[in-house]
Amino acid sequence: MCSHFDLSSLSENVLIANRGEIAIRIARTCKKLDLKPFGIYSDADKNSLHIKYCEKAVDIGGFTPAESYLNMNKIIEAANALGCELIHPGYGFLSENPDFAMHCKREGLTFIGPSYESMSITGDKARSRQVASRITSIVDGGEVSNEVMAMDLAEKIGFPVILKAVQGGGGRGLRIIRSFEELKEAFADSKNEAMISFGSDRIYIEKYIENPRHIEVQVLADDSNVIHLGERECSVQRRHQKLIEETPSPVLTVEMRNSITKTAIAIINEMKYTNAGTVEFLFKNNKFYFMEVNARIQVEHPITEVVTGVDIVEQQLRIALGDGLMIKQEDVKSKGHAIECRINSEHPLSFVPTPGTITKFLTPELEGIRIDTAIYSGYSIPSFYDSLIAKVISSANTRLEAIEKMKNSLMLLRVTGIPSTIPFHISALNDARFISGNYDTSFIDELKPFSSKDGEMAAALLSLLPKKIEFLNKDVQEMAVDPWAISRFDTIDLFNSNYNINKWVR
């Protein structure tokens, strides 16, 4: 916990109702604006780094999200105890909960995000689709309350279809259905998962678009103006959760970009939305389909920041404080290209989360590389929360330069003691489809793996063994390969080659 001081001397105190890297990110901008960041932490987060970035932080108890970061009463009590006038929810947890925004308002606290009324639309995917349909194309579908309605609608729009939680996100409650039999089996499970995850079992069905691209537009809005900060390509996903994002999208023409950004602004205006938000689209056969509005800061916001020079958290704070947008659309000048890799504490083959203690964490200091993280050597990752441990952001004048910078930084990034997705990311960045920009949401499914045995060996070599891996000496044959570039998806079979692995590991 940070040092104590006289709270009565403060004029604008911000409670960051979150944890990890996003809490650190918000705290830094608060300090830049001479605002005082305060924090909360659960019993599982007593050694979390975000506490040290706060003027003071209080233990709200509990281990699970429901006991801590999802407990509205505890958070409001913490804000009052710390003398905070504003609450920044970050992303996840309560960030898109309209009831929390209303709770803050009743307590005289400023919620740094959209209004209760706007979030009542964006948080209800069925209602959000209805509003957006007045502006642009949406995928055929609708809300269903029982299995009979689901069967009738699926028959009408045709398989495959997708089940989604009306008030959900992050892939939870989501099921892809290709037959009536699958629908019958999955319907109850989807409703149950939606209830457990979001407190509502409302679900809807829509036509499933096979292998689209996932493209989103970052927007900022105050009471009188809406601007966009360009789009992000988010098509590299597993279990409908993003792993790699980039901006600008390599597939869009100037005309397409103008079309999607204008559409996003029109949707935000229609919803009377304020603060930062993201309008998400599916893109297939040169046509955009509205998907949803994320009413919060996005995990991948840094890539937009590095190409536009706009501090999105700063704009959020200024809008909430009543200053309004400090920039106009003509002030936004995107420059170059940026890529973000989400490094997760997951097995690089199966993507199964693997919490544990990080024995060593070393980050490279390279030009054009930004790393947002809250981990450190000796940190124990709790099993109760998201598996994200670091975001690596590369930026350069061109897309190919940004890819090379990212590969170099990942080869120098060392995370030991737990498996991580670094091997996957390096392999993905070397994939011809990614390099060409010709990829979609099927990217991971279509990667060609090693055999299971060889894949496990690669994962162990790169992620599991607490040994130092060195580059080969100059006298080694010219075609030798850095094992950090070898993983499940590479075309070179290191383990059946003539290379001597023992030269790499000491």
Give an overview in words.
The chain is of the alpha+beta class and 506 residues long. The protein has three domains: 7-112, 3-Layer(aba) Sandwich (Rossmann fold); 140-207, Dna Ligase, domain 1 (2-Layer Sandwich); 213-436, D-amino Acid Aminotransferase, Chain A, domain 1, CATH 3.30.470.20. It has helices spanning 20-32, 72-82, 98-106, 116-122, 125-132, 147-157, 180-198, 254-270, 301-308, 312-320, 399-412, 422-430, 432-436, 452-464, and strands at 13-16, 36-41, 56-59, 86-88, 110-111, 141-144, 161-165, 175-177, 203-207, 213-221, 226-238, 241-247, 275-284, 287-294, 337-344, 360-362, 369-373, 388-396, 414-416. Strands 14-13-10-11-12-15-18-17 form an eight-stranded antiparallel β-sheet. A five-stranded parallel β-sheet has the order 3-2-1-4-5, with helices on both faces. Strand 10 and strand 11 form a beta hairpin. The model is unreliable at 1-10, 449-457 and 463-506 (pLDDT under 50).
What's the gist of this structure?
The protein has helices at residues 20-32, 72-82, 98-106, 116-122, 125-132, 147-157, 180-198, 254-270, 301-308, 312-320, 399-412, 422-430, 432-436, 452-464, and strands at residues 13-16, 36-41, 56-59, 86-88, 110-111, 141-144, 161-165, 175-177, 203-207, 213-221, 226-238, 241-247, 275-284, 287-294, 337-344, 360-362, 369-373, 388-396, 414-416. It has 506 residues and is α+β, with helices and mostly antiparallel strands.
List the helices and strands and how they pair.
Layout: E1 13-16, H1 20-32, E2 36-41, E3 56-59, H2 72-82, E4 86-88, H3 98-106, E5 110-111, H4 116-122, H5 125-132, E6 141-144, H6 147-157, E7 161-165, E8 175-177, H7 180-198, E9 203-207, E10 213-221, E11 226-238, E12 241-247, H8 254-270, E13 275-284, E14 287-294, H9 301-308, H10 312-320, E15 337-344, E16 360-362, E17 369-373, E18 388-396, H11 399-412, E19 414-416, H12 422-430, H13 432-436, H14 452-464
Parallel strand pairs: 1-2, 1-4, 2-3, 4-5
Antiparallel strand pairs: 6-9, 7-8, 7-9, 10-11, 10-13, 11-12, 12-15, 13-14, 15-18, 16-19, 17-18
Helix pairs in contact: 3-4, 6-7, 11-12
